[in-house]
Specification:
Elements lengths: L1 H12 L4 H4 L3 H14 L2 E9 L2 E12 L2 E8 L6 E5 L2 E8 L2 E8 L13 H6 E11 L2 E10 L6 E7 L5 E7 L5 E12 L17 E4 L1 H4 L9 E2 L7 E9 L6 E8 L4 E8 L9 E5 L2 E8 L2 E7 L3 H9 L1 E2 L1
Parallel strand pairs: 6-12
Antiparallel strand pairs: 1-2, 1-11, 2-3, 3-4, 4-5, 5-6, 7-8, 8-9, 9-10, 10-11, 13-20, 14-15, 15-16, 16-19, 17-18, 18-19
Length: about 325
């Protein structure tokens, strides 16, 4: 009887859906990207990074031609992220303070695909898996497998009705799960007002802006990365004045459309010991070296090979 019930459950939750699979697969990804921009939705998903498990509430509305997103962490610190178009503001709440950090556009689950997927097509192979129920809705599994060792594999479960990603798993070449996010509740609606688009303010806490983020200056870079991992392109370059010293540090961000690498080129203060070597935790890898008075460090949710290749290529 138990085996019979298990068979019925498998047939109900794992059904092949040829409708999506028969279409141009990359057209499905393009529609998925548009769905994450154009749909109004609110839901809660569980995000896991290694042993770290968090519940996240997300609200997304397309108001006119601009996107508004609010993300609330429901576990641990009550951090919030408000995104309007390309501008992102992070409210990091800790103890009696709230640190406000400003960022440029970032891709948060489920809106993880860029507008241009041409690089993704070059460095990932696309295939379809079985259909499954996620958050009470039928989905189609889509697999993106890397063609080299510079990036991880991505698996998505796309809502069959809207094509919004309802689940994502990132795994290494050994198929070990590194990160995963999955909705357990989601609703689509036509709400267009922006009353919800405000941070939760607490008068008992002190709010201050992260000065290291906002003090950006214009200066020509003095270094170059001559061997960027294939498929990665620089999408942001920040020059910031280092606190307490009359020197500047550089921060560059590279992406292939799905994976991101941050590269830091910062002066080493007198008496400070630079970091040298590699470190891995969950899906994140860090590689660092010392070069002509500067700390060269790369951090990213990519294989160690990618961050090592990047820092080893920096010269000036």
């Amino acid at each position: 009887m138990i085996k019979y019930f298990s068979l019925i459950l498998f047939l109900l939750t794992s059904v092949k859906t040829p409708l999506l699979a028969e279409q141009n697969p990359w057209e499905i990804i393009e529609k998925c990207q548009k769905a994450s921009q154009n749909l109004n939705y609110k839901g809660i998903y569980i995000s896991q990074h290694g042993h770290d498990l968090k519940s996240v509430e997300i609200t997304h509305v397309l108001h006119g031609s601009e996107q508004f997103t609010r993300i609330n962490l429901l576990d641990g610190n009550a951090d919030e992220v408000l995104s309007q178009g390309k501008n992102v503001v992070i409210y990091h709440k800790q103890d009696n303070n709230v640190v406000i950090q400003k960022r440029e556009q970032q891709h948060f689950f489920p809106a993880i695909f860029p507008g241009d997927i041409s690089e993704i097509k070059k460095y990932y192979l696309l295939s379809f898996g079985m259909s499954e129920r996620v958050a009470g809705r039928m989905t189609q599994r889509v697999n993106l497998t890397p063609t080299d060792g510079f990036r991880y594999a991505y698996n998505f479960w796309l809502d069959q009705e809207t094509l919004l990603p309802l689940k994502m798993i990132i795994s290494n070449l050994d198929k070990n799960i590194l990160e995963q996010s999955a909705f357990n509740k989601i609703q689509f609606n036509k709400v267009t007002d922006l009353k919800w688009f405000t941070p939760t303010l607490d008068d008992s806490k002190k709010y201050h802006i992260d000065e290291n983020i906002t003090k950006e200056i214009n200066i020509n870079r003095f270094w170059r990365a001559k061997n960027i991992p294939p498929g990665f392109k620089e999408v942001n370059f920040i020059v910031s004045k280092m606190p307490d010293i009359n020197l500047v540090g550089n921060h560059s961000i590279y992406t292939d459309g799905l994976s991101y690498i941050s590269l830091f080129v910062q002066p080493v203060r007198k008496g400070q010991k630079p970091k040298v070597g590699d470190l891995s935790f969950n899906s994140t890898n860090v590689s660092a070296r010392y070069y002509r008075g500067y700390q060269i460090m790369a951090v990213g949710s990519v294989p160690l090979k990618a961050v090592k290749t990047l820092i080893d290529s920096v010269e000036f």
